[in-house]
Amino acid sequence: MVTQNRPAARPPAPQLSLHTPLGDLTVSEEDGAIVAIDWGWAPDQTETSLLRRARAALHAYFDGDKTPFDLPLAPAGTPYQCRVWAALRRIPYGHTRTYLEIARDAGGAARSVGQANGRNPIPIIIPCHRVVGSDGLGGYSGGDGPATKQALLDLETAPIRSLFPAISFMTPAKSAPP
């Protein structure tokens, strides 16, 4: 009889869920960094200081706080996906960029930016919802799809909309000069 040495099963990553206006979200942590935000409620809850910070930051975001997220992130992806996700984090709160503008920043083509957005493991904090098509909203893979994307964009522009209700905010913002 041959026995195999198997590595010990790694305990599941700590997860903490929260209620939001767009449904339940679950934040996951590995090695001291946020690695995922998933739609839905996790069956097992583990409170760590980082997950409590992430939950508080997300609650503040949904309350209209414009403070950028200041959390350690470790999204798993290809080097190209990581470049796209880094470009997304540079889009300011309440602004949008087109898929083509992100492609110019990160390399690749608009379609490959859309694919990287669809594989973004940390939505909202890595704001893939801020990327729009040159002729419309574009897709979204989280929550209820494009309706969720529109709700996130509306959340970020709500105070501005109340001051200037006649202005359309779906026009993509121009990239800031380097």
Secondary structure layout plus pairing:
Blueprint: E1 15-20, E2 23-30, E3 33-39, H1 49-62, H2 79-89, E4 97-98, H3 99-106, H4 110-118, E5 131-132, H5 146-163
Parallel strand pairs: 4-5
Antiparallel strand pairs: 1-2, 2-3
Share of residues in helices: 25-40%
Distance between the termini: 65 Å
Please identify which CATH superfamily of the largest domain we are dealing with: Winged helix-like DNA-binding domain superfamily/Winged helix DNA-binding domain
In CATH terms, what is the fold-level topology of the largest domain?
Answer: Arc Repressor Mutant, subunit A
SS content category: alpha+beta
Gyration radius (Cα, Å) is: 18 Å
Let me know the average pLDDT.
Answer: 85
Structure description:
- This protein is an alpha+beta fold and 178 residues long.
- The chain has 2 domains: 15-62, no CATH class; 79-163, Winged helix-like DNA-binding domain superfamily/Winged helix DNA-binding domain (Arc Repressor Mutant, subunit A, Orthogonal Bundle).
- It has 5 helices and 5 strands; from the N terminus they run E-E-E-H-H-E-H-H-E-H.
- The chain has a 3-stranded antiparallel β-sheet, covered by helices on one side. Strands 4-5 form a two-stranded parallel sheet.
- The longest helix is centred in the last third of the chain and has 18 residues, at 146-163.
- It is globular.
